[in-house]
Amino acid sequence: MDENSKPRPQEYDRFVQAEIPNPNEDFKGHQLVLQHMIHDPYCTNKSPCWKDDRCSKRYPKHYSVHTRCGEDSYPVYRRRSPEMGGHHGHKEGRPRQNITNEWVVPHNLQLLKIFNCHLNVEICSSVHSIKYVIKYTMKGSDQLFFGVNREDEVAQYLTGRYIGPSEAVSTILGFPIHNREPAVIRLQVHLPEQQQVFYQENETIQHNNNMIKTTLTEFFDLCVRDPFAKTLYDVDIPRFYVWNDKRWQRRKAGMRVQLHLHIFEANDIGRVYTVSPNSDDLYYMRLLLHHVKGPVSCDKLKTVHGVILPSFKDACREKGLLHDDAHWQHTMVEAERTRFPRAMRDLFVLLLVNCEINNPIDLWERFKDSMSEDFHHLEQRTLYDHTLLINGKHYNQALSYLQEKLDTFGKNLQQFNLPAPQNLHVHHVVNNREFLFEQQYNTDEQREFVEEKEPLLNPKQRNVYEFICDCLNRDIGKLIFIDAPGGTGKNFHNNLILAKMRSSGDIALSVASSGIAARLMPGGRTAFKVQNSSYYQR
Question: What is the domain range of residue 258?
Answer without folding.
Answer: 185-202+210-318
